[in-house]
Every structure is written in structure tokens, then in C-alpha cells.
């Protein structure tokens, strides 16, 4: 028997203050669907991620409940963590389902993730994922595929999230990062060991120039079916740790330099967590019958 999905909405994450960000589809359903059906819906939506929200307690609904299950799928696979889809999921519950709770907790593959309202935006409580320094020669093929002959300063890997961080040299201008033409097919072929599922390219920001970004980044994940993600909360759980150590500060303003682009406000906490601040705008809403 096919089931009816209660609601599907396509939301645009607007990190920080900018009217841009990362597109995501949110699906709310009273009970779990089959895994293959989740994947087929995500492939049909064809955005970086599709988030599926289901109730934990059958006696509660999307308005009264404070805990929900949350899963994220790219067009090709299920993933362990997605920041903008988590924020957009909370926005669907708060804005469209009129959820009455001040804080929502999502049960996910990455543990419990809490989202609270703050003014017109939201604060996500995420795990901090510190990377460790690596020998650039161990990743020379993927680095070459991503940045060509541009000089690099650091190579770090977060083994838990399988995200490789490559920092461009401080001698590089921001235009070097924004003008990179990364071939997702070549990038995926350059790394087949399974150690890397996402590539972060980052560089030091220009805090002396308003609005004062502490660092810039771009994120590529063709291994998960995402050639380039416009704005990536999960990547900033790694970036936040790296740049907090390098800059000696806990509160940072970041900008992800994709073609769509987006600003993120970060706060690294002493308990090994990171707060990521953002806003959300709904651009499409409807119902899907399966």
C-alpha cells in the first residue's frame, strides 16, 4: 500500500543575513517510509539534500512534539550530517506546523541535534569535528584536481566525517577561490580510497574589510552525488574547529563562496560543540502522493 506524505516544502537556507544560501527539500510524514522510497524522492527532488522528518512519539504531532527523527538524502545516497537541511527542517516545524516548543531535538545518525529560535533566525547545536594535519603528498591527486597549481598552506582530514580540508596559501587572493573550476568527475576519480567523501577548500578571510569575514570556503562532494554544495553547515563543524585554533577566537563570521553563496555565524563552545546561526525562507510548498 502506497502512503501519502503529509507535506513537502522546498526551503532556501539563508545563513546569517544574506538573501542567498542553500536549497533543500523537507518532507514531513507521520511514519517512516521504506529506505528505497526516501532515496527515490530525493533523486526526484534533485537538490543537494532532501530531509525527512518523522514523529518519535505517536501520541504527539508536528505541532506539539519536541523530538523528531531526521534523515538526509542526496540524490544518490543517505548522509550522516547536513546543517542547512537541519535548519530548514526546524523552520518547517516552527513556521508551517506552528510548533509550540522553544527547542526542537532531532534524532539523527550524528546523535541528537537541537535547534532553537533566536529572533527571526535559528541556532543549531552541532558536534564539533576537529581535523588532524596530514601530509599533502598523501592527497596530491585530489589536491591537484581541485586547486591545480595554486599554492596551498595546510592539509587536514577529519576522519570521522571524511572531509578533507585544503587551505590555500595566504598569498592567494579571494578571487583564486571563487574562480576555481572544479570538475566533479575528475575530482571523484582522483580519490577512490574511501577516506574522503567531501572536499573543503578554504582560505583566510579579510576581517579588516566589512562585513569582516574570518575565513572563506567552498565545498565539493561528488562522492555523495553533490558536485558543489552552495552552503554547508556540516563542513563548518570542521572549519569552525580548524579556524578557531588558527585564529585564536571562538566567534567567527564565515562566507561560503559558491555561485549562490552564503554567510554563516559560528560560535565554538568549550564543551566540544559548535553553534551555527542561520535563517530560512520557504520558496515552494505542496503535497506529494506516493
TrEMBL record:
InterPro entries in the record: Phenazine_PhzF-like
GO molecular function, one term: isomerase activity
Family: Belongs to the PhzF family.
Active site (record annotation): 49
Domain of life: Eukaryota
Residue intervals passing through the bilayer: none
Cross-referenced Gene3D superfamilies: Diaminopimelate Epimerase, Chain A, domain 1 (3.10.310.10)
Keywords: Isomerase
Protein name: Phenazine biosynthesis-like protein domain containing 2
GO cellular component: cytoplasm
Species annotation: Gasterosteus aculeatus aculeatus (three-spined stickleback)
Amino acid at each position: 500500500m502506497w502512503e501519502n506524505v503529509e507535506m513537502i516544502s522546498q526551503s532556501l537556507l539563508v545563513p546569517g543575513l544574506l538573501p542567498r544560501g542553500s536549497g533543500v527539500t523537507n518532507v514531513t510524514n507521520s511514519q517512516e517510509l521504506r529506505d528505497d522510497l526516501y532515496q527515490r524522492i530525493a533523486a526526484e527532488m534533485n537538490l543537494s539534500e532532501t530531509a525527512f522528518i518523522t514523529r518519535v512519539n505517536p501520541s504527539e504531532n508536528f505541532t506539539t512534539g519536541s523530538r523528531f527523527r531526521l534523515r538526509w538524502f542526496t540524490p544518490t545516497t543517505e548522509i550522516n550530517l547536513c546543517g542547512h537541511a537541519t535548519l530548514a527542517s526546524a523552520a518547517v516545524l516552527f513556521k508551517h506546523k506552528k510548533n509550540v516548543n522553544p527547542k526542537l531535538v532531532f534524532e539523527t545518525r550524528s546523535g541528537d541535534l537541537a535547534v532553537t529560535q533566536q529572533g527571526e533566525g535559528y541556532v543549531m547545536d552541532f558536534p564539533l569535528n576537529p581535523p588532524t594535519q596530514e601530509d599533502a603528498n598523501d592527497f596530491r591527486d585530489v589536491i591537484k584536481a581541485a586547486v591545480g597549481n595554486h599554492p596551498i598552506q595546510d592539509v587536514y582530514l577529519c576522519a570521522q566525517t571524511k572531509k578533507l580540508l585544503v587551505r590555500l596559501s595566504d598569498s592567494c587572493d579571494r578571487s583564486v577561490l571563487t574562480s576555481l573550476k572544479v570538475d566533479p568527475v575528475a575530482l571523484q576519480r582522483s580519490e577512490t580510497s574511501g577516506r574522503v567523501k567531501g572536499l573543503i577548500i578554504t582560505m583566510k578571510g579579510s576581517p579588516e574589510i566589512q562585513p569582516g569575514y574570518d575565513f572563506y570556503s567552498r565545498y565539493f562532494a561528488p562522492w555523495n552525488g553533490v558536485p558543489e554544495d552552495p552552503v554547508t553547515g556540516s563542513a563548518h563543524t570542521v572549519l569552525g574547529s580548524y579556524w578557531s585554533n588558527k585564529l585564536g577566537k571562538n566567534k567567527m563570521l564565515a562566507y561560503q563562496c559558491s555561485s549562490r553563496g552564503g554567510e554563516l555565524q559560528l560560535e565554538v563552545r568549550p564543551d566540544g560543540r559548535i553553534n551555527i546561526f542561520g535563517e530560512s525562507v520557504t520558496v515552494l510548498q505542496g503535497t506529494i502522493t506516493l
